[in-house]
Structure formats: C-alpha cells, structure tokens
C-alpha cells in the first residue's frame, strides 16, 4: 500500500520561525536539506534512541543539526562542513537558535579531519554529505560508534537513480550512483550491522551496530 503525500504530511509538526526561515532559504538558494517527512522520522527515532553524542557529516546551513538538538535535549551534536559559504550561514543560524550551546561546528573536509580530535565515541552518526563518498565516510567514522550505536544515512534513493540500471543513469551521475550501489550492497551484507532501509523522503538507511 502506498500512502498519499497529504496523509504523510499531516503528521509533520509545526516548526518555529527560525526553521521556517531556513527552509525558505534552502528552497530559494537550492541548498539540499533533509525533506520534512524524513527529518520527522529521523528525529522521532533519535528521541527513542536518546543519543548523548551525535556526529553529523555534512552541516550545510545547520538545519538538521538544529532539528536534532531540539528533538533530543540531552544530545550534543558535532557537525562537519567544508563549504565556506555554508559554514558562515550555519554559524549564523545556529547562533540564532536556542540550542547553539549543544552544537559544535568543525570546519573542514570530513575525510581530512583528524578523527582523534573528536575526543570520544558517538552514540549516533548521521551521514548527509557527498553520496559517492558514503563508503569512505562510513569506514572513517564507524570505529567511533560502539556496539548498540546507530549510523543513519540520507538520500540513499537519490530521487530514483539508485534503482536504475547504471546505463540508464545520466552520464554525469554514473560514477556517484555506481559507488552508492556498491556501498548499498556492502552495508546490506555487513556482518557487524543490522541495516534497514526506510522509504521516506529520499531514502533513509539505518545501520545498527551489533
């Protein structure tokens, strides 16, 4: 059974003025932020998990970091972003929020940051950056997740491209989709993780570390 978009949207909670402003900015400037249905699911799962420390790969303008901090009051979020313009916007929006004291923004490429500088393990990791680098992000940061921790990955469906034969994917996206397909097969069969795909938003992957 496929649920209507209207029915699913009826469960989306009202957002405060700051979040609405960020959503409008993202729409106007083509900044990819998590779709509303997906972030509702993610934050609800995080309310249940109750992580104390969460690492986010890909801050963008800080939208999901703020949403997560608001949803889980005892959680500290460390988020990494390399784009200078987005870093400055994220700093502004985080400063405007009432949860900025629980968000630490690290400037730099997530594949070049010294993981030892992150000080300790994370109960959860949220990967929402370059999709063709999911494998490298996962291999770099999964050692910081203890048994029972969870790694969440957004945009696994890639607007339908992930299920197409590679020859039907636009040429400029084939390399990225090929890597995403390889990662999907790899993590689905990884003995150390129980992995579930949630068909919400653009596809959310949930990987529970055994």
From TrEMBL:
Mg(2+) binds at residues 128, 154-155. Pfam families: Methyltransf_3. The keyword Metal-binding applies. Keywords: Magnesium, Metal-binding, Methyltransferase, S-adenosyl-L-methionine, Transferase, tRNA processing. It comes from the Bacteria. It is an enzyme of class 2 (transferase). GO terms for molecular function: magnesium ion binding; O-methyltransferase activity; S-adenosylmethionine-dependent methyltransferase activity; tRNA (uridine) methyltransferase activity. One of its GO terms (biological process) is tRNA methylation. S-adenosyl-L-methionine binds at residues 34, 64, 81, 109-110, 128. Transmembrane segments: none annotated. InterPro entries: Cation-dep_OMT, SAM-dependent_MTases_sf, SAM_O-MeTrfase, TrmR_methyltr. The keyword Magnesium applies. Belongs to the class I-like SAM-binding methyltransferase superfamily. Cation-dependent O-methyltransferase family. Homodimer. Catalyzes the methylation of 5-hydroxyuridine (ho5U) to form 5-methoxyuridine (mo5U) at position 34 in tRNAs. This is tRNA 5-hydroxyuridine methyltransferase. It comes from Ureibacillus thermophilus. The gene is trmR.
């Amino acid at each position: 059974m496929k649920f209507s978009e209207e029915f699913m949207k009826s469960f989306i909670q009202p957002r405060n003025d700051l979040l609405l402003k960020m959503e409008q900015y993202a729409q106007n400037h083509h900044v990819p932020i998590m779709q509303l249905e997906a972030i509702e699911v993610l934050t609800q799962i995080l309310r249940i998990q109750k992580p104390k420390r969460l690492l986010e790969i890909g801050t963008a303008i800080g939208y999901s970091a703020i949403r997560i901090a608001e949803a889980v009051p005892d959680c500290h979020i460390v988020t990494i972003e390399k784009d200078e313009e987005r870093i400055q916007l994220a700093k502004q929006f985080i400063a405007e929020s009432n949860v900025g004291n629980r968000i630490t923004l690290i400037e730099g490429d997530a594949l070049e940051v010294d993981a030892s500088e992150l000080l300790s393990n994370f109960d959860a990791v949220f990967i929402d950056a370059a999709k063709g680098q999911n494998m490298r992000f996962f291999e770099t940061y999964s050692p910081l997740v203890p048994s029972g921790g969870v790694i969440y990955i957004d945009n696994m469906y890639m607007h339908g491209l992930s299920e197409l034969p590679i020859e039907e994917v636009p040429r400029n996206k084939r390399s990225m989709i090929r890597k995403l397909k390889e990662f999907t097969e790899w993590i689905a069969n990884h003995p150390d993780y129980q992995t579930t795909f949630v068909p919400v938003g653009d596809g959310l992957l949930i990987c529970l570390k055994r």
